[in-house]
Amino acid sequence: ANATAKEPHPKLFKKVAHHIIALNNLGDFKPQELSNIVWANATANEPHPKLFKKVADHIMLNNFRNFNGQDYANIVWAYATAAEPH
Fold it and tell me: Residue 12 in 3-state DSSP?
């Protein structure tokens, strides 16, 4: 909601990113949740390279297990928009 409202809250995005980065793994996240996280950061122009790397590493490790077409689209769009090279 914050991303599409065009009223980003940089401190919130940063705090969420740091929380996710600190997690041992992202196995409890569903594919849609991961794609929404990076999509929201890219949409709000709040990219966080360490967050994007953590999500990309998790996705690659799990070989896109359980991702659907919309998840793929959101992930690719977010990384392209944020200019993240993963």
Answer: helix
> Model-level pTM greater than 0.90?
no
| CA–CA gap between residue 69 and residue 54 (Å, rounded) | 21
How does DSSP assign 37-85, residue by residue?
Answer: HHHHHHHTT---HHHHHHHHHHHHHTTTTT--HHHHHHHHHHHHHTT--
C-alpha 54: how far from chain center: 9
pLDDT level of residue 80 (50, 70, 90 thresholds)? very high
Contacts of 41 (CB under 8 A, 6+ apart): 3, 13, 17, 47, 48, 51, 52, 78, 82
Quote the tokens at residue 81: 């928009």
Rounded distance, CA 83 to CA 5, Å? 22
